[in-house]
Amino acid sequence: MKWLMVNKYDEVLNRVDLDADNRDEAIEHFSGIKQLSVESFKKMWRVLSESELESFQRKPSSDGEFGDWLDIEKS
Hints:
Helix content: 40-55%
Radius of gyration: 18 Å
Strand order of the largest sheet: 2-1-3
Mean pLDDT: 84
Low-confidence stretches: none
Structural class: alpha+beta
Order of helices and strands: EEHHEHH
Shape: globular
């Protein structure tokens, strides 16, 4: 499973493909890279799966910048 280390703005800083589906193992992996305890690591970064990050990211609207509310305002 692909795991991503992200900052508070959900910017991907590092990624790893681990055999395990366990988030705790991914956190231990990234905290080892940063040479921090798990508790210190969790205060600064998050670990998400690739699918979790995709679900958080906003999908662009096909209606353009203003969306449906502009049509409602015109009526």
